[in-house]
Specification:
Number of helices: 10
Largest sheet: 5 strands, mixed
Radius of gyration: 25 Å
Strand order of the largest sheet: 13-12-11-14-15
Strand content: 25-35%
Number of strands: 15
Mean pLDDT: 91
Low-confidence stretches: 1-9
Shape: globular
Order of helices and strands: EEEEEEEEHHHHHHEEEHEHEHEEH
Helix content: 25-40%
């Protein structure tokens, strides 16, 4: 099955062909573009696959196959390439970078270099295991090696973005950089990439996330969140925040193991400080209302709760750029954010310092 894009003045023909691993025999391979749209599909036959079509621009693409998992179907991505004019050759048996024109040559140089450095780091770590070092020294050296790699990796992909700010190689680097850069570093590269790259879905999502991180960082005024109480009535964070009390906003979910393990600490904290100008407001990322209410009851969470039951699409979580839970936001009596991401003893100490 081939889905061809509309022909334009700059359109070109392409062929993507290659060898697949033996365990892929008979599977359907899917080619997706830089916006994760399905472009083409083909069946692996006699260890080979082939995509052929027409595109109006060169783009960063991924090849994957679908797998049935609990709760639905998942696409597993197994190869990356640049779809560009002419033929692109791949060998997934050897996990080699794609061979093609100018962009795939740049792509292979970039990620082949990263893989070589990664392999060198793995050898360093293996050699470290053979040294007669005490545990503390070994962990220190291990962290030094790993941290140096990631620092170099960050510099490498950032430079690749700046050197390829208007092409598909830059898109591939930007995908990686978005997972490890600071909000300020993201803003720096976002400012220079082309309008076409800015318009990609993952770039728009990341930029929105970064803006929310900066808008809800320590020192900023809180942003209101809307949800529903356990009785179904509409609730707002502003019902509690900005009214003179310190408010701890706790992002959690009934299905979150770490959240449940942390909850006894919050129960203890609430009992200790409830009458001392302090409140907790739970914002749940649940999607099952019954499970949410049962967890509240079972874990003795007697403070106010709210949720829109939208799972990771929770509007409250997105407004505060929450991408892992449990996550806490501590807000002072005037509505200013004074801490984020505190747990355990660190959280207890911060609340004790604030609520005097």
């Amino acid at each position: 099955m081939v889905m061809l894009s509309a022909t334009t003045a700059s359109a070109f023909d392409y062929v993507v062909t290659g060898n697949a691993a033996p365990e892929m025999e008979g599977k359907m391979f899917y080619l997706l573009d830089d916006n994760s749209n399905l472009v083409d599909s083909t069946k692996v036959t006699a260890g080979k696959f082939k995509f052929q079509g027409n595109a109006d621009k060169a783009y960063y693409g991924r090849i994957g196959f679908k797998e049935n998992v609990e709760g639905g179907v998942r696409t597993n991505y197994i190869a990356e390439l640049i779809v560009e004019p002419g033929t692109v050759e791949m060998d997934m048996n050897k996990r080699m970078p794609a061979k093609g024109g100018e962009l795939n040559t740049k792509f292979a140089s970039l990620w082949g270099g990263v893989m070589a450095k990664q392999n060198a780091v793995m050898k360093q770590l293996e050699a470290l295991q053979k040294d007669s070092l005490d545990q503390e020294t070994m962990m220190q050296k291990r962290n030094e090696i790993v941290n140096a790699f990631y620092q170099d990796f960050g510099t490498t992909v950032k430079n690749a973005i700046l050197e390829n700010k208007d092409n598909a190689v830059g898109v591939s680097a930007l995908r990686q950089y978005s997972q490890l850069c600071t909000p300020e570093e993201w803003q720096e590269v976002y400012a220079v990439v082309s309008p076409d790259i800015k318009n990609l879905d993952f770039v728009k999502e990341q930029n929105n996330k970064v803006n929310n991180i900066l808008r809800t960082s320590v020192g900023k005024k809180f942003i209101d969140v809307e949800g529903k109480n356990i009785d179904g009535t509409v609730a707002h964070l502003s019902d509690y925040v900005g009214k003179g009390k310190y408010v701890l906003v706790d992002y959690w979910a009934s299905w979150c193991g770490p959240c449940r393990r942390e909850m006894p600490n919050l129960v203890e904290t609430y009992a200790k400080y409830k009458g001392k100008n302090f409140e907790i407001v739970g914002v749940s990322l649940d999607q099952d209302g019954a499970a949410w209410k049962e967890a509240i009851k079972k874990m003795n969470m007697t403070w106010p709760q709210m949720s829109d039951l939208k799972f990771w699409q929770s509007e409250g979580a997105q407004l505060y750029a929450v991408n892992s839970i449990p996550h806490t936001v501590l807000i002072d009596g005037s509505g200013k954010i004074i801490a984020r991401g505190l747990h355990g003893e660190e959280l207890q100490a911060k609340i004790a310092e604030a609520v005097k």
